[in-house]
Amino acid sequence: MIRPDKVKVFIVDDSAVVRQVLQVVLQRDPGIAVIGTAPDPLFALQRMQQGYWPDVLVLDVEMPRMDGITFLKKLMAERPLPVVICSTLTEKGAQITLDALAAGAVSVVTKPRVGLKDFLVDQTAELTQTIKAAARANTRSLRPAVRTAASAVKAPTQSTITPSAHILTNTTEKIIAMGMSTGGTVALERVLTTLPRTLPGIAVVQHMPEKFTATFAERLNTVCALDVREARDGDRLVPGLVLIAPGGRHMQVRRSGAQYHVEVRDGPPVNRHRPSVDVLFRSVAQCAARNALGIILTGMGDDGARGLKEMHDAGARTIAQDEASSVVYGMPKEAVKLGAVDRSLALGDIGAAMVEYGRG
User: Fold this and answer.
1) Domain identity same for 61 and 173
2) Which of 54, 139, 146, 337 could share a disulfide with 8, CB 3.0–4.6 Å?
3) Which positions are catalytic residues (predicted)?
4) Given 60, 207, 276, 312, the catalytic residue
């Protein structure tokens, strides 16, 4: 008999080694019970329907008979369930994993092609934390994002190397900094697809591994009127541009004369993350203060809460996603507890608040 306080996990992966190692490392946590494993989604669905329905599903994406994304879409349409994707660190894997997140997956655990056993053992704490957070996820917020095509063909991108004097003037007035984690890829897409190109420059930290952020930015760029791309060191923040912090590196905002630009740098993890939302927010508090808007979205943990408090105390306006619309109400909750938040808004209202801020 499984104790009711344990998180029941089912593992679906075509690799017997992965299934075995995952089961062993997860079972070491007294709060987790692995109730079943399967080599593909069809076997998994059969077992789950026989009484092995889990609290969290750990799912590979490339498998025989039925791929993980097809299975995920089926689950989200018929019986929404928190799903943690286990994917390899390849460019192809990055695209497939982002498709899975868009289809409703809660989070991603990356796995290497070599040294898998040592990697999973070393990452046991992070893996179990991710699964426990997924078990608390708001399944009503896991429905797939509705893709919205950009409203028109994009105008030529304003150069981030030699912007006009008019653009420089606008850039010194306002910038927007955003941070998110679990559930954030879909949340960010839903916000950005509602925004016009006239908005101030936006700097974003989404907790995401290397090789994923460039693909993520490209994906957003195809569905947004704004220009979206992975940040490069020295890029200027100009109206109509969204810069996504590269996975595995921190991003800060600095002011040079009348211009805001980003610094992308190496460094130790902050709050267990690199990039860290706190690193971004603290830099914005120092260089932009009351000329900035800070927004913290869905995510587990507390990264960004203290940085948003620094922005708030420096005179910036601050917004947190509310509990009802968050997949995981962790980061926003911690920011609210610190007194860092001016307004808590539903995800669907945040875009309008950003437009209002841009208009002054």
Assistant:
1) no
2) 54
3) 181, 207, 303
4) 207
Candidates 107, 141, 181, 325; catalytic one? 181
This prediction has a pTM of 0.86
Token code pair at residue 250: 């921190």
What is the reported pLDDT for 155? 55
Are 84 and 189 in the same domain? Answer: no
Using DSSP bridges, classify how beta strands 227-230 and 83-88 pair: parallel, antiparallel or unpaired: unpaired
Cβ atoms of 196 and 315 closer than 8 Å? no
Count of CB atoms situated within 10 Å of the CB of 34:
20
DSSP run (H or E) holding 41: helix 41-49
Question: In the Cβ-directed half-sphere of 263, how many Cα atoms lie within 13 Å?
Answer: 13
Residue 181 known to be catalytic? yes
| Among 55, 303, 322, 326, the one annotated catalytic | 303
- Sign, CA dihedral 229-231-236-238, equals positive
Residues 129 and 18 in one domain: yes
pLDDT, tens digit, for every residue of 140-180?
887 665 554 444 456 554 434 333 333 333 345 799 999 99
Q: Do residue 190 and residue 326 come from a single domain? A: yes
**88 bridge partner residues:** 111
Q: What's the pLDDT at 148? A: 47
Residue 147 lies in a domain: no
C-alpha angle 58/59/64, rounded to 5°? 150
- 235 and 127 housed in the same domain: no
Name the token pair of 171.
Answer: 């850039």
CB 245 within 8 A of CB 270: no
DSSP of 132-165, one letter per residue?
HHHHT--GGG-SPP-----SSPPPPPPPSSS--H
pLDDT in tens, 276-310: 999 999 999 999 999 999 999 999 999 999 999 99
Whole-angstrom CA distances from 325 to 236, 306, 348 are: 32, 22, 8
By residue range, what is the domain housing residue 315? 165-359
State the pLDDT at residue 97: 79
Our count of domains for the chain comes to 2
Question: Annotated catalytic, 207?
Answer: yes
